[in-house]
Every structure is written in structure tokens, then in C-alpha cells.
Amino acid sequence: MDDLSTVQPGDETSSSETLDTGRQQNNGEKNNEGNIVYQERCGLESDHPPAEGRTKQTDRSAVKCIVDKRFACTECGYRAARKADLIKHIRKHTGEKPYKCDQCDYSAAWKGNFDKHMAKHNGEIPFMCDKCGYRTDNSSHLFSHMRTHTDMKPYKCDHCEYSTARKRSLELHLTRHTGEKPLMCGECGYRTADRSSLTKHMKTHTGEKPYKCDLCDYSAAKKSNLDQHMTNHTGEKPYMCGECGYGTADRTSLTKHMRTHTGAKPYKCDQCDFSASCKFSLDRHMAKHTGEKPFMCGECGYRTADRSNLSRHMSRHTGVKPYKCDQCNYSATRKSYLNQHLVKHS
Question: Please, are residues 218 and 322 in contact by the beta-carbon 8 Å criterion?
Fold first, then answer.
């Protein structure tokens, strides 16, 4: 019964002795390597001795249960069947990130995340949607994207009628019911439930714009903004409304547009009867109830409840005019100004 020796490496006792020893020891016993080996047994424990009719098959079942998840984390209740899995888990507690990018400062705790990051440097975008041409370096992102074509929304809120295609979107939505905003900006006190939102917000203080256009001087704090900007050069509008032929380069813009046909207003205020077709409209409305103005200018202290208002305000300090006319040298701080200008050419 060689499989029994795996319970305690280096133990030369017989299988029955090993099992009996396991019954007497605490579940958190350490092996020779210093790893916690769980001596968990199947079924209910009893103060009475085992029945004489115990069979080898029963012993094998008990040993299998012992061996299944014998490595335990001392910080939380996580257990693993393999030592390698425990080592990966421990990095959540230690913050260790052994996988380091040789082209930038990025580092990762897990190789899978590191491989996804390297694809950004290599330009590899292997996963493509056969419906609209959307591409990504992450297979799970493609899977989530495909639901936008099927209208499948398996994640449902148990407090209201909200449903979504992505689990993370549901988690963020639930914070509207709980009011939880654990992440805070150290510069201005802005709070959010979403780590990526905080990261984006911090760039309003630093002025960092890492996403740069390779065809002009435009740069952006968000990749989605750069993607939208690039369509100014290509003229591409892959997302089209089947009702009226409206086309756009932005998937979210199409989603919002479709609500003009359906009349859907999924964003509802929990303090009054207000509802909105767009999230930012609800956010602006909620500020009327709370008086909160989380977005602050680091130059002059101007505060607003609307992120886009802050972006427009910041252009007064920076002089940046990202909206450029492709027919003359005119540029503007706001897209609406550019649209008004383009009328002159038409």
C-alpha cells in the first residue's frame, strides 16, 4: 500500500499505524518540509473505537481524503492538494511578484497574468470575435464580450432587476445597494468600490497619459479613450444599430444608443423615482442627494460631481485641445466645439 506512505513523507510505519497516528494528531500537523499536512477524515468523528469490521476499502477512502488537500495556508482557511498551488496562494498574503517584465516595471504574482501583460508588448491579440472583429489577448474577456451579441446576462442582482454579462459588473452594482466604497484617493478623498476606477482617477492628479497615438500628438489617460481617438484617423465604425443604421466606433455608445429605441432605463435611484439610461446620468443625479463632489482639480481646488466636467476644466490649465479638425488647423478643448466648427466646412 505505497499510497499510504504519502500521508507522512519519510514515515516507515505500516498503513494501519499511519492511519492510527493520524487519528491521534491534530489536523494541523507539520511534515518534515515544514508544510501543514491536514489529517482530515471522511465521515463523522467518534470517541468510540472503530468497529472491528473496518475494511481495507474504508481505510483507502480515509487515506484518499487525507491526501486530497493536505497543504494548508496558515493565514486563512485555504487548502490545496499540491504544494505548488499553496505557494501560489501564499503570494496573495505576502505580495510577492516573482514574474517581472524586462520591458517595463510591471511584475506579477502569477505566470498567467504575466503572459497576458507580455502580449501587450508583443502586439499579440490572438482572440477575435467572429461577429464584430473585437480582439483581445484574454480568452475570458472574449467570452464575456460574446454575451453582448447574445444578450445573455447570467449574473442577476437579488435586490433589483439588474442583470449583467459579467460577474465583476454585478459586484460593482451591488455596492450601490450597500453603499460600500472601500478604496480612497489619498489626494482628494475620492472614494470608489472599483480599483480600476481609482487608478483612472489618480491620473487626474498626476496628469499621466500613458496611451499615445502613433499618428499624432494625442495621448490619453485611458486606453478606451485612445481607441476612440484612433477611429478619427481610420473612420472605422464597426458597431451598427440594426434599427436605424446608426454607426459608432464605441461599443458602449451603441449600447446607450439602443436604449433610445427600447426606452430602457436600467439605472435607478434608490432614494427617489429617478431612472436613467446611462450610468453617468445616475451618478450626476445621486450627487444631488449626497452633495458629494469627488472630482477635484489639483491646480485650483475646483470640485465637481462629474468626471467629464473635471476633464474639461483641466484643459484650462493645460491648454490641451485634443479635438482637431481634419480639414484645417482648428482644435478645441471640447468635442461639441469641434462639431460646431465642422458645420462651417459642410
Answer: yes
Q: Evaluate if pTM is beyond 0.70.
A: no
- For the chain, give the mean pLDDT: 75
What are the residues facing 211 on neighbouring strands? Answer: 220
* pLDDT for 248: 85
Q: Which of 238, 234, 230 is nearest to 211 (CA)?
A: 230
CA distance 88 to 118: 20
Distances in Å between the Cα of 64 and the Cα atoms of 3, 5, 42, 57, 129 are 9, 12, 9, 11, 43
Q: pLDDT tens for residues 176-212?
A: 788 788 888 887 878 888 887 888 788 778 778 888 8
Domain edges within the chain = 2-44+52-93
Q: Are strands 79-80 and 99-100 parallel, antiparallel or unpaired?
A: unpaired
Greatest C-alpha distance within the chain: 98
Among 324, 325, 327, 303, CA closest to 313? 303
Kindly state the helix (H) or strand (E) to which residue 200 belongs, with its residue range.
Answer: helix 195-206
Print burial letters for 126-135: b (CB count within 10 Å at least 16), e (below 16): ebeeeebebe
